[in-house]
Amino acid sequence: MKNLQFKVKVFLAIFISILIVGTVSFSVIEDISFTDAFYFTIATISTVGYGDVHPTTAAGKMLAIFIIILGVGAFLGVIANSVEIMLNIREKKHRNKKLNMLIGAFYSEVGNELITYLSGFDQALDKVRGELIMESDCSNQSFQLVKKNLKKYNYKIDIDKSKLPHLRKFFIERRDFLLRLLENSRILEHEAFAELLMSVFHLAEELEHRHRLSQLPEEDLKHLTIDIERVYILLVYRWLDYMQHLKKNYPYLFSLAIRINPFNPDASPIVCK
Is 159 helix (H, G, I), strand (E, B) or coil? Predict the structure, then answer.
C-alpha cells in the first residue's frame, strides 16, 4: 500500500509539473493567454483534440508531442495506481471484517471465559474494574482513555494453585477450537491477535505438561505467573479493541457484549430497566 501511495505521489507530481510547464510554455511559444495555454495542455494530455484552436508554430507542435508522451503516461499512472489503492482498501476492509468475525468467535468460545479465570488471579483488579465495565453510550474517547490508563496499571497476579487444574481442563476442552482458529491463514494478518493466540497456546502447553499442579514449587509458580500475566494483558487489550469494533459497527452485538462483560461480577444477559 505504501509503495502504491508513493507511486501516486510521484505520478501526480509529474502530472502537475507537466500542467505548469505546458501552460507557461504554450503561452510563451504561441503568444496566447494562460487560459488558452492551459486549455492546450489539458486537450493535449487528454488527447481529445483542439477543435477550432491548435498550436500554430513548429515549437508549439513539438511541445504538444512532448506533453503527449509524458503527460498521458503520468495521467494514466495516477489513475491506475489510485484505482489499485481503492481496490486494496476495499479488499483490506473485507479481510478485516472476516478477521473480526474470527476474533469474535474466539472471545465467545474462549476469550471471555478465560478473562474470567485469569482476572481471578489479579489482586489489583478492583482499581480498574470500573473502567472496564462500560455502558452502551460509551464513546471512542472512552475506549482510548481506558487503554491509556491500562498502560499505567500495575497487574498483581497471584496464582491460586487450586484453580490451575480447572484452567488446564478448560484449555484441553477447547484445544480443537483453538487449533482450527490457528489453521486459518488470515489470523497471521492480525499480528496482535496472532501474538495473543501463540501466548494462549504456550500457557496451555505449560499447564498440560504439569501433572501435579497443586504441588508446584515456588520457582515454577513464578514461571507460570509470567505466562499467565502475558496472556491476561494481551487478552484485555484485544478485548477492548474488539469491544470498540462492536460499538462502532454492530451495536446489537455490543449490547450483548456489555451485558456479559467478563469483568462484571454481576453480568447477566437478561435485559433490565
Answer: coil
CATH for 2-89, among 1.10.540.10, 1.10.1780.10, 1.10.287.70, 3.30.70.3040? 1.10.287.70
How confident is the model at residue 92, as a pLDDT? Answer: 79
State the amino acid at position 226 in one-letter form.
Answer: I
Residue 157, beta-bridge partner list? 122
**Domain boundaries defined on the chain:** 2-89, 120-259
Residues 6 or more apart in contact with residue 102 via CB below 8 angstroms: 181, 184, 186, 187
Mean of the per-residue pLDDT values of the chain: 86
C-alpha distances out from residue 23 to 15, 16, 30, 45, 67, Å: 12, 11, 10, 12, 10
Q: What is the pTM of this model?
A: 0.72
Q: Where are the alpha helices (DSSP H) in the chain?
A: 2-29, 34-46, 58-106, 112-119, 126-132, 140-152, 164-173, 175-183, 191-208, 218-249, 251-259
The pLDDT tens digits for 198-253 are: 999 999 999 999 988 888 898 999 999 999 999 999 999 999 999 999 999 999 99
The grid coordinates of residue 208 equal 498440560
Predicted confidence (pLDDT) per residue in 62-93, tens digit: 877 887 777 777 777 778 877 877 877 787 78
Residue 125 has pLDDT above 70, yes or no: yes
Distance CA 104, CA 110 (A): 10
